[in-house]
Sequence to fold (234 residues):
Amino acid sequence: MRTKTTLLGAAILAAGALSSMAQSNVYSLNVVGYINTTLTGTGKYTLIANQLDSGNNVFSNFFQSLPTGTQILKWNNGTASFVPASRIAFGNGWSPAGAATSTLNPGEACFVKTVASSPGATNTFVGNVKGLASTGGTNPVYSGSYTNSLPTGYTLIGATPPVSGAVTTALGLTNVPTGSQILKWDPVAQSYVPFSKIAFGSGWSPSVPTVNVGDGFFIKPSSAFVWTQTFNVN
Fold:
């Protein structure tokens, strides 16, 4: 999966933020903008996360440009199952009824299944980086803090702000209980890549997981814990 991030608006992010903020094809780094995510074609699945706040964050904002027949699959923690929604060509454009107003808030993730005949597609998230506060002045510092209470069992999630790098540093996942798992998605192999939290070495086996901007992943904590992400740029 290739992700292109262009954040427009007041230029607040210094070049030093590049290593944690985004990868290739970053044209400017600011508060407001869009994230383009390439979706694997021919009926395959891509796991993506929303990291921008559009205001209401509904499917009809984020996924309306996708071809008829595209499916969105959100994870339901309560039932431990996926909830599908399909892009259709009539009515409100989504099935089942009401799916157009289903939400994908910053930090939430979903699978997108492209149409079998499609060579691929690009999805664009447009919005603001959520929850940033400024110190003001000539050289303001922008910061945000995001808290997620993660239960045992599987949760499909992503970073709330658009950051990339190791989950321990860029995402602040430093207090994951030993015995927990992270499952990343390989869109080429169409399979999960597992990582386990261990008590020695780097703390992860086979290595510390890394993510790109727009990536979603499953996390399965061995016990409930609170994940706090902090984001600071100037």
